[in-house]
Amino acid sequence: MQQEITQSTIEEIARHYEAIITLLGEDVTREGLIKTPMRAAKAMVYATRGYRQDADTIINEAIFTHEGSRMVVVKDIEFYSLCEHHILPFFGKVSIGYIPNGKTIGLSKLARLVDFYARRLQVQERMTSQICKIVMDKLAAKGVIVVCTGEHLCMKMRGVEKQDSATTTVETAGVFDEQPTLCDEFFRALGH
Fold it and tell me: Which residues are catalytic?
């Protein structure tokens, strides 16, 4: 976990935004842009807060003993992230399934773990894998599956400009790798 960002760091980020806006040909003293560098700096700090969080603090003793549950599925957890290649947003939904091995986790903690990895410069493939790995590791689950579907503004507003495109990534661990029928059960639970 990194240290919290200080006010002086935010001001330095704002100075960089001011320079970028100027280099793009805009007048940063224009009424609509006077406060934009600082607003953009604060927005970037917020959008990358995952760098300054800690997974153990997020989970915060929300792992519970539980005997039962063939599969736990939390679907359609929304996320917002920034593509590390273009620093443009990508966003969508993550669904997580796991087979408990004597432990479950507070459901809201799964959503917080999604944000932990989404709120940083990221690629969807890595994010999906990181979520799968942390759920598997922290719960010592029998198996985990994570499906992420995202829309990438780096594909929609620049480059190929394909407005209806979406990307789906799937990551599995444990018994989901060994028993394809469990993957089928998970996708049925999602309504696919």
Answer: 83-86, 124, 152, 154
